[in-house]
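If you are new to this repository, start here. Below is one unmodified record pulled from the training split, so you can see the exact layout before writing a loader.
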Amino acid sequence: MANQEQLESFIGNCFRSVWALEVLQYLVANPSAKFTADELITALRISDAVVSQSVDNLSAAGLAVVDSEGRVALHENNADQAGLVAAAIDFYQKSPDK
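And here is the target side for that same chain:
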């Protein structure tokens, strides 16, 4: 389990907006699925621009991958990163205004 300092650093470095965390949360809930931008827009009720920015952000952070057809999926790296992702989602669910 990540300590508070590690968690805050991870969140600060990986998420430029709360929407990126929303997209990540959706990917984590569907770990073996790949989604088109339209599917994410429909599922999360967010705009194309928000999806595009969030996916770019998550890809740059190594948390999501985009295949050659433009479908987005969770990128599961290692246990440490998975623990930070789970902690960030848990923190967000408990304190969405932080």
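Two things worth knowing about this chain: Strands lie at 64-66, 72-74. The chain is about 60% helix and 5% strand.
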